[in-house]
Design brief:
The protein has one domain: Double Stranded RNA Binding Domain, CATH 3.30.160. It has five helices and seven strands, in the order βββαβααβαββα. It has helices spanning 57-73, 87-90, 93-103, 136-145, 187-204; strands spanning 21-22, 27-34, 47-52, 77-80, 108-117, 158-167, 172-182. Strands 1-2-7-6-5-3-4 form a seven-stranded mixed β-sheet. It is globular and about 35 Å long.
């Protein structure tokens, strides 16, 4: 289980990709993790849910739609999670598990969970090796239990966002990363920049490759 210092949450979604900066938004990408099994998985042509773990409905729906569009542009069937399951279902792990596995045909999930901290935090890949993170449904229950209601943004805010990619049939974590930024100026542009960055990273990691295509 990851323990964060005292936190203040902000209405922003940022995404992680490896070791770079995105545009002028000054998003710094930190630790990443890739499962040894990730190379055998491709979501090309398959239904992939864009999931934002937040109780701020406006932020969640907008970010899920943006992410779903980018997934679709890569050849997947991206779909916002709020469109495939009722809100009351999504916030209960057992109901969500039954609904998503039995009614949606989803093969993968790209999940975002915003976490804002007052000072820099060090992340290591080992945090994704055990505990709640090993399986999608273990992480799903943990993620929703740790959601906080977003507050305001000030100039000193440091924003941290966790991103995970899961295979639903395997119930397995394939890829994970953390991004951090400070003093965000334009939240809408930052959302757009980071969403694009993560789908590019998925493509780089082979999670969107065409069947039969060599890396």
């Amino acid at each position: 289980m990851i323990r964060y210092p005292s936190v203040r949450f902000v209405p922003i979604i940022v995404m992680a990709a490896m070791g770079a900066l995105v545009s002028a938004a000054s998003v710094q990408f930190q630790s990443t993790y890739k499962s040894p099994d990730a190379a055998s998985v491709s979501f090309f042509g398959k239904k992939v849910a864009a999931l934002v773990i937040s109780k701020d409905d406006n932020m969640r729906m907008g970010a899920e739609e943006a992410l779903a569009r980018e997934l679709t542009a890569l050849g997947m069937q991206g779909i916002a999670t709020y469109r495939i399951a009722p809100k009351e279902v999504l916030q209960d792990v057992e109901q969500a598990k039954a609904w998503i596995q039995q009614k949606t045909g989803v093969e993968g999930v790209v999940a975002l969970r915003p976490v804002s901290v007052e000072k820099r935090t060090t992340y290591t890949p080992s945090i994704w090796m055990g505990g709640y993170y090993n399986t999608f449904w273990g992480y799903y229950g943990y993620g929703w239990s740790q959601v906080y209601v977003p507050g305001g943004v000030d100039q000193e805010t440091v924003v941290v966002v966790e991103n995970t990619v899961y295979s639903v049939p395997r119930n397995e974590l394939l890829w994970a990363a953390v991004a951090q930024t400070s003093d965000p100026k334009n939240l809408q542009k930052l959302v757009s920049d980071i969403v694009k960055a993560i789908v590019k990273e998925m493509q780089k990691q082979g999670l969107a490759k065409r069947p039969g295509k060599l890396d």
